[in-house]
Specification:
7 strands, 3 domains, 11 helices, Alpha-Beta Plaits
């Protein structure tokens, strides 16, 4: 089950500001109490993912980054790669170790792989997102970025070393099994209440989103022919389209998707 915190982030992605009372109404009759909603909001605020102003909550840039990294990667799978690589290089002092570790994790979520020590690369241009991250963390003076082509030292032979494709393949396999079982469960239901369908959609997005935070969405030339990504995206879209039919009668829900 998708966590309550992540559900709230997805809702705030579509509804820029929301009051606690509105969230309590959304979850009325469901498994979460008003106190659990307030606790989730407090945790998200401590993590720096949301802010609170005049009784209304909204996403911070950090909270937005958690979700937009996934959306960006979904967009990359339909684009043709032009052969350009984007590199991030840093030399961050030990006094900033925590920021260095955070930057490394953020780069991986954006799809960068570790080429050498403190050198990460991606086939996709994530420069605006990287700039935002390093500026928020005060690391601009320690980080350099470069865009260009390799004249020697091709990446082809090092793909599985730079990105753990075996692990990512396993994640897609688990997702395909989960989708198959979910489709069987839903096919037994004569109908699905709109709000139940909404939370099923959020869970679906979360399952694929967790994989996309690790999948760099490499160009096809670097992937094996039997790569499971396309099949996972196809089944994701089929289940999403099936579920969305049940929420179309609720305009308030559609605004959140």
């Amino acid at each position: 089950m998708i966590s309550l915190e992540r559900q709230i982030l997805y809702i705030l992605m579509r509804k820029p500001e929301i009051e606690v009372s509105e969230l309590i109404d959304i979850y009325n009759g469901r498994r979460y109490s008003s106190q659990s909603i307030r606790n989730a909001l407090s945790r998200l605020k401590r993590l720096g993912y949301i802010r609170h102003h005049q009784r209304r909550y909204s996403l911070t840039p950090a909270g937005t980054n958690v979700l937009t990294a996934i959306q960006f990667k979904l967009a990359q799978k339909i684009r043709t790669w032009n052969g350009t690589w984007h590199l991030v290089m840093y030399q961050i002092p030990e006094s900033h170790r925590s920021f260095r570790n955070t930057l490394r994790q953020d780069l991986i979520h954006l799809g960068y792989g570790q080429l050498y020590h403190s050198v990460f690369l991606s086939p996709h241009n994530q420069t605006p997102s990287v700039k935002q991250i390093i500026e928020e963390q005060g690391l601009s003076e320690f980080v350099s970025m470069f865009t260009g082509h390799f004249t020697s030292g091709e990446i082809d032979s090092r793909v599985n070393e730079i990105w753990d494709l075996k692990h990512i393949r396993g994640l897609y396999g688990e997702f395909l099994a989960w989708v198959s079982e979910k489709r069987k469960q839903l096919s037994r239901l004569p109908s699905i209440p709109p709000w139940d369908a909404f939370f099923e959609i959020l869970e679906l997005v979360e399952h694929l989103g967790n994989i996309l935070l690790q999948d760099p969405i490499l160009p096809n030339k670097f992937l094996p022919k039997d790569w499971p990504g396309p099949e996972a995206w196809r089944l994701y879209r089929e289940l999403y389209d099936h579920l969305i039919q049940y929420v179309k009668s609720e305009k308030g829900i559609l605004q959140l998707l």
